[in-house]
């Protein structure tokens, strides 16, 4: 399947690339939040647009040949999904989630949901929460050695999720053949706000191409 690449990048170069990607994405992420909240007049907005367009021109001067970042495996087995809309290092739309994996199988992340993610007044949009749950459940299944693509995602919204500090967590519940079932939740200081169960299916192309084996090797190598 296209969009999956293998690269040979040294540790120092990867560290440098990560720093650059993180800084650019965070700057644009801040710009998005500022855009939502700004009340400058037309003249100031026009000046800001000129600067934004100039910055965009610089970024467009050297880009990947494809329309997506894809999934990139390094020769040491590590994986980069920098374009991912939830965890992508390069993606300013991503909060992003920095997922931690505990020894007991729990995958979790704590992050800030700012004004760019608003749905109902002062609350995180339900669709954004769905994307986060999809990602954290899938990450838990993958880290447990049972990767797959989302087949179904069932969510129960228990209460509104206020903008601000949010926690997502999940774990693999069971495996049934090529299906992995994970469960998880979203919470804030006020308690659980949403719960989810996801069924992730390892597609035929992944089984035949060995992509799943690469993921398992990356996990076993630490």
UniProtKB/TrEMBL annotation:
Keywords: Apoptosis, Cell membrane, Cell projection, Cytoplasm, Fatty acid metabolism, Hydrolase, Lipid metabolism, Membrane, Transit peptide. It comes from the Bacteria. One of its GO terms (cellular component) is membrane. Residues 122-191 form the Thioesterase domain. It catalyses: (9Z)-octadecenoyl-CoA + H2O = (9Z)-octadecenoate + CoA + H(+); dodecanoyl-CoA + H2O = dodecanoate + CoA + H(+); decanoyl-CoA + H2O = decanoate + CoA + H(+); hexadecanoyl-CoA + H2O = hexadecanoate + CoA + H(+). Its EC number is 3.1.2.2. This is Acyl-coenzyme A thioesterase THEM4. It comes from Gordonia desulfuricans.
């Amino acid at each position: 399947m296209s969009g999956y690449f293998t690269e040979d990048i040294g540790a120092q170069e990867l560290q440098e690339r990560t720093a650059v990607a993180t800084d650019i994405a965070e700057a644009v992420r801040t710009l998005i939040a500022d855009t939502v909240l700004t009340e400058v007049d037309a003249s100031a907005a026009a000046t800001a647009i000129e600067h934004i367009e100039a910055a965009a021109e610089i970024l467009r001067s050297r880009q990947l040949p494809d329309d997506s970042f894809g999934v990139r495996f390094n020769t040491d087995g590590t994986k980069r999904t920098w374009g991912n809309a939830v965890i992508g290092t390069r993606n300013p739309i991503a909060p992003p989630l920095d997922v931690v994996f505990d020894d007991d199988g729990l995958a979790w992340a704590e992050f800030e949901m700012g004004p760019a993610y608003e749905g109902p007044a002062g609350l995180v949009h339900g669709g954004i929460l769905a994307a986060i749950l999809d990602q954290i459940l899938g990450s838990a299944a993958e880290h447990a050695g049972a990767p797959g693509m989302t087949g179904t995602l069932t969510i129960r919204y228990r209460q509104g999720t206020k903008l601000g500090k949010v926690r997502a967590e999940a774990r693999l519940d069971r495996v049934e053949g090529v299906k992995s079932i994970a469960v998880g939740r979203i919470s804030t200081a006020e308690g659980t706000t949403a719960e989810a169960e996801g069924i992730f299916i390892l597609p035929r192309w992944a089984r035949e191409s060995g992509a799943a084996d690469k993921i398992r090797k990356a996990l076993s190598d630490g």
